[in-house]
Structure formats: C-alpha cells, structure tokens
Amino acid sequence: MEKKNIFARIQEMEIQMGHMHSELGELKLVIKELLEDNHRLSLENEQLRKVFKREVQSAESDKATPQEPPELIKDEENGEDVVGEGYDNLARLYHEGFHICNVYYGHLRTEGDCLFCLSFLNK
Ligand SMILES: [Zn+2]
C-alpha cells in the first residue's frame, strides 16, 4: 500500500469518526430526554394510582347513598355549592401535586408551585 493512500484513508476515517461522535452526542441527548420522560411519567402514574385508589374507596363507602354525577347536579338550584365543590376538588388535586392550570392541566408538578395554577386558585 502506498504511503499517500494510507494518509488519505486515515483522513477519511477521521471524518467518519467525527460524524459518529456527533451522532453519539445526539443519541445521548435523546436517551437523556427519554429517561427524564420516564421518570416524570412514573411519578405521575404513581400519584394517579393513589388518587384513583382513594376515589374508588370513597365511591365504595358512598354506595349506600349513591350520588348523581356532577353534570346533573349543576342545573339544580344550589349551583353555587357545586361550583364550590369543583373548586375544592381542583384545590385538592393541586395539593396532591398536579397542575390544574390550562397550560399543564393533569400533569404532575415537578418543580414546586406553579404560578398559572396559583393564579387560577386565587380567582
Ligand atoms: Zn400549573
């Protein structure tokens, strides 16, 4: 093999390695995002399971006196109480760690208080 040829091949390999290196960097970023998503979703899932379990338990204890779904109660005269109840539910959801703002509604709050949620609660 000629010397010139060897240098050309080495140079080519260097270029290829550069490409691979940047590709590896991109893949690492993707993996990082996936791991973060996974972590966030695990927390959200765990929290939702807790809420769901508690709802099921309270539904079972309410079986003796079945309640109408909220949509049906809304039209009745005590509309204000229903609104208050809806507010309480949202406030509870917020304190359980979920967003209730229309920006991130239903997502787990991972970074402490959310200004959108708080301004919604203070309305
Ligand atoms: Zn929020």
Fold topology:
Blueprint (H helix, E strand, L loop, with lengths): L2 H59 L8 H4 L5 H17 L19 H7 L2
Zinc ion binds next to helix 4.
Q: How many helices in DSSP terms?
A: 4
Head-to-tail CA distance between termini: 80 Å
| Ligand set | zinc ion
Q: What pattern of helices and strands is seen along the backbone?
A: HHHH
Number of domains: 2
Structural class, by secondary structure, is: mainly alpha
What proportion of the residues form beta strands (DSSP E)? under 5%
General form? elongated
Largest sheet: none
Query: What is the helical fraction, as a range of percent?
Result: over 70%
Radius of gyration based on Cα positions: 27 Å
How many individual β-strands?
A: 0
Low-confidence stretches: 72-77
Q: Give the mean pLDDT.
A: 84
